[in-house]
Amino acid sequence: MGLTLTAAFQLPLSRIMINDQDECVIKPNEVWISVPEKIKKILTSLIEAHYPNWQTIPDKTSEYFTIFPYYIENESKFGMKILHSQTKELRSSAILALMKKGYQDRITLHKAIGVSMPTIVKLEYLLPVDTHRKLDPELIKARNAVILGEDKDG
Fold this sequence. Notes:
The chain is mainly alpha-helical. The chain has eight helices and three strands.
């Protein structure tokens, strides 16, 4: 999903939920994003093993609960033993896959998974086209005005 190992390891229960469409969504940064069905099954089974009533726990309480420390005693060991210290490569390939699937706006990628602009720019060089230039410049200006609060009608 393009998260850093630390972000995934420390993701609190308050940032995971099942929405009204019965999708599992996570909020790794500023916006909720849906996870693939296979990941939903794995993630919910891991959560339910330790928090059977997890969906009814208030957000103020669930922000202190995490999932992965129950299964992985140390995130560094996990990175070395399971992922063979390839965490940056795995993250980059996940971000690149998102970009190839159409998530090509830098702001969207940053707000969704917290990837930095320098990282996005580096990965854009691996794509055959400049994905940021695909958007109409007027659309970019209008979007930026809304984000910056300059366009009250947004």
